[in-house]
Amino acid sequence: MKRLYVACACIALLPMTASAVCVIEPLESKLQAAETVYVGTVVKSALVPRLEELRSAATSNDRRTTIRHAVEPEIVFKGDPSTVGAVLSTWHYSDPNAGRRAVVSELTTLMPGDTILVVAESSGPARYELCTASRMWTTETEKAVRAHFSPAR
Q1: Which CA distances in Å does 110 have to 15, 16, 26, 79, 139?
Q2: Inter-residue contact 89 to 129 (CB < 8 Å)
Q3: What is the mean pLDDT of residues 114-118?
Q4: What end-to-end distance do the CA atoms of the chain give, in Å?
Q5: Label partner for 75 (CA 20 to 30 A): which of 12, 13, 48, 150?
Q6: 16-42 pLDDT, tens per residue?
């Protein structure tokens, strides 16, 4: 019985992707509906709230924070990247003085130097999260986007 508990604990600790929590929609429909689609490089990232606000948050849930990323457009497929302005993501502030640290696996890391596909449905900031159409510019993503915007369509 002890081995069963140890095995269950080990399985629970294995790194797993959280993509199963999203309803998978084809990227093509998101590209079609978007006002602006471009590939860019993140050149700057900054906390939206002040650090003092995060430090004084009453609960761990209140420490979720928005990060504003400036993205330099490199390949424009649709629309005007200047209407997007920024890409917003969510992160969790971990107080280094706290006894416990929160780890939120469904949050996605985005930092300066990353190249991303930005898909904005309207003017204003786009979102970059686990379940959004904006995502890392991978070979797979590039194939899907270039196929969608190819002149032969």
Answers
A1: 19, 19, 22, 23, 18
A2: yes
A3: 96
A4: 60
A5: 48
A6: 434 345 666 789 999 999 999 999 999
Whether this prediction's pTM lies above 0.85 is answered by no
Query: For the chain, what is the HEC assignment?
Result: CHHHHHHHHHHHHCCCCCHHHCCCCCHHHHHHHCCEEEEEEEEEEEECCCHHHHHCCCCCHHHEEEEEEEEEEEEEEECCHHHCCCEEEEEECCCCCCCCCCCCCCCCCCCCCCEEEEEECCCCCEECCCCCCCEECCHHHHHHHHHHCCCCC
